[in-house]
């Protein structure tokens, strides 16, 4: 199974936040969308769908733990690492995506095809897909 197979089952909308937004805005976006991670995009509008990082609930907690109440006024860009965005493509296998997540200790992976952000998959998406695949294989095995 490929990453693109998971994306076809998910909603097309990808939740994003700009680098110059505050932690408070990012937290509100995550809460209103009932999600735990946002793709961070560059502030330059001409960049289109250029993803530069991920911002997660853990980043919100880290900002508050390290800076107290002032942490919510910090910029998202102050808390993310933009040196190298870990991502995958829709043609990667779920096993390849899972390996990347384990290697980099992350739970969300942006999916980028032809330099454009097309979605995000989570470790939960991968587990669900593996569970569904195992259940369907179990049904096809004669008793």
Description:
With 143 residues, this protein is an alpha+beta fold. It is built from five helices and five strands. The strands form two sheets. Strands 1-2-3 form a three-stranded mixed β-sheet. A two-stranded antiparallel sheet has the order 4-5. A hairpin with a 2-residue loop joins strand 4 (108-113) and strand 5 (116-122). Helix 2 (23-33) runs antiparallel to helix 3.
Low-confidence parts lasting 5 or more residues at pLDDT below 50?
none
- Relative strand content: 15-25%
Helix content: 40-55%
Order of helices and strands: HEHEEHHEEH
- What strand order characterises the main sheet? 1-2-3
Largest sheet: 3 strands, mixed
What is the structural class? alpha+beta
Number of helices: 5
Rg to the nearest angstrom?
A: 17 Å
How does the overall form come out from the CA principal axes?
Answer: elongated
Gap from first CA to last CA: 25 Å
Round the mean pLDDT to the nearest integer and report it: 89
Number of strands: 5
Set down the secondary structure blueprint.
Layout: H1 3-9, E1 16-18, H2 23-33, E2 37-41, E3 51-56, H3 57-67, H4 94-104, E4 108-113, E5 116-122, H5 123-140
Parallel strand pairs: 1-2
Antiparallel strand pairs: 2-3, 4-5
Helix pairs in contact: 2-3
């Amino acid at each position: 199974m490929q990453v693109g197979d998971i994306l076809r089952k998910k909603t097309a909308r990808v939740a994003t936040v700009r680098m110059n937004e505050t932690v408070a805005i990012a937290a509100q976006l995550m809460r209103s969308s009932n999600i735990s991670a946002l793709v961070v995009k560059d502030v330059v509008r001409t960049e289109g769908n250029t993803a530069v990082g991920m911002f997660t609930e853990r980043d919100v907690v880290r900002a508050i733990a390290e800076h107290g109440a002032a942490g919510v006024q910090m910029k998202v860009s102050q808390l993310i690492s933009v040196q190298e965005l870990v991502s995958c493509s829709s043609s990667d296998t779920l096993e390849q995506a899972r390996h990347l997540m384990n290697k980099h200790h992350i739970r969300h992976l942006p999916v980028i095809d032809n330099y454009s952000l097309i979605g995000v998959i989570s470790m939960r998406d991968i587990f669900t897909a593996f569970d569904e695949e195992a259940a369907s294989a179990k049904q096809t095995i004669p008793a």
